[in-house]
Amino acid sequence: MELTTCDINLKLLPEKAIYIDQFKSLLVSDIHLGKSETFQRAGIPIPNAINAETLDRLQNLCLRLKPDHLFILGDLLHSKFALVDEVLNLWFDFLQSVEADVSLIIGNHDRYLTHQLEKLSIHYFTDAIQIENLILSHEPSPQAHHLNICGHIHPCLNIKTKLDRLRLPCFYFDQIQHLLVLPSFGEFTGGYEVELTSSATAYVIAEDVIIPFQG
Questions:
Q1: Mind listing the pLDDT tens digit for each residue in 98-145?
Q2: Which of 20, 28, 60, 43 is nearest to 152 (CA)?
Q3: I need a surface site. Which of 13, 67, 128, 164 has the fewest CB within 10 A?
Q4: Predicted local confidence at residue 94, as pLDDT
Q5: CB atoms < 10 A from the CB of 214, how many?
Q6: At 49, which CATH number?
Q7: Residues of the domain holding 194
Q8: Which one-letter DSSP state was computed for residue 85?
Q9: Comparing C-alpha atoms, which of 152, 187, 178, 210 is closest to residue 29?
Q10: Sign, Cα dihedral of 87, 99, 129, 186
Q11: How open is the CA angle 213-105-158, to the nearest 5 degrees?
């Protein structure tokens, strides 16, 4: 599904990513590699396959779209327990499989790992970055006359009927604030239910289809 705002044409993808053709850039957020390892240390048996499945999806997107740039808008890693050989080897295999220049904007989960991020062999930024009239950040940072694309919130929408209720991930767009929030790209990351104001639209992901719901 395409969305144009602030003179930027965006392609919202059901894979929970955004592609911007004019910048040849692919945007994802909240990958949370190593979440299974973190839970395992707490005695909760989460399968390690989650890391590989997440990176396989990202690899497939990069191979299909061939972006020049891949921007990860925070929380590539879930915690310090993600910095283990199994996770790092998967990450390096991913980097070798794609041609995009990969950059990370530090998120709240990455913030305490900055002294170790050199291990990941990517560029990283501690603050929001600007590309023409586009602001990329981890947490919302709306600015007048600029489009702010961010992550952090893991937005989802509850859809209710008389017989059922669905909780689905979504892109959350507020046209007054020029704010667009990405859904969490990672597996097993949960979600925060957003409320739709009159200026907001939730672009809900239902398998391979995106459905807009307006406030």
A1: 999 999 999 988 887 777 778 888 899 999 999 999 999 999 998 888
A2: 28
A3: 164
A4: 96
A5: 12
A6: 3.60.21
A7: 2-214
A8: H
A9: 152
A10: negative
A11: 20
